[in-house]
Amino acid sequence: FNHSTLIQITYLLLFYQILLAFSALIALTSAQGYHPTPSYEQPAHYAYNYGVVDDYSGNNFGQSESRDGYVTSGEYHVQLPDGRLQTVNYHVGDAYTGYVADVTYSGTPSYGPAPIHHTPIPIHHHAAPIPHHPLPLHHQTGPFFHHF
């Protein structure tokens, strides 16, 4: 190697060292610290309700529910087409007892008058008679022979 080549190699190594130090500085300043996964150990706690009653359309439905940890209880209801109100009361005691529901119906079913279906009166068309033209019977008398 000659002297100028060694100087070039030295400057090149110095450049790479500066570049490496600068990259490390940027990586350290922009790195985000460790944040553990958030804990959701608090038991659920809520209560809500809603309902719709519309006389014009006949809609009547709603629900209410409350929860404290595993213990959940609530009720929902819906107006059935026959006029009765179906109500479901439910309860969940813990993680092992599961969902327990009690379904009740209130009101008297009303089905209204049965629809009248008119059966059309059958019209019987008799087939036209088939024309029958018998061939004329021609009676010819031929010679009469007697043999004695």
UniProtKB/TrEMBL annotation:
Keyword Nucleotide-binding in record: no
InterPro entries, alphabetized: Insect_cuticle, Insect_Cuticle_Struc_Prot
GO terms for cellular component: extracellular matrix; extracellular space
Keywords from the named record: Cuticle, Membrane, Transmembrane, Transmembrane helix
GO molecular function: structural constituent of cuticle
Domain of life: Eukaryota
Entries under Pfam families matching the protein: Chitin_bind_4
Native organism taxonomy: Eukaryota, Metazoa, Ecdysozoa, Arthropoda, Crustacea
Protein name according to UniProt: Uncharacterized protein
Regions crossing the membrane: 6-28
Keyword Transmembrane helix in record: yes
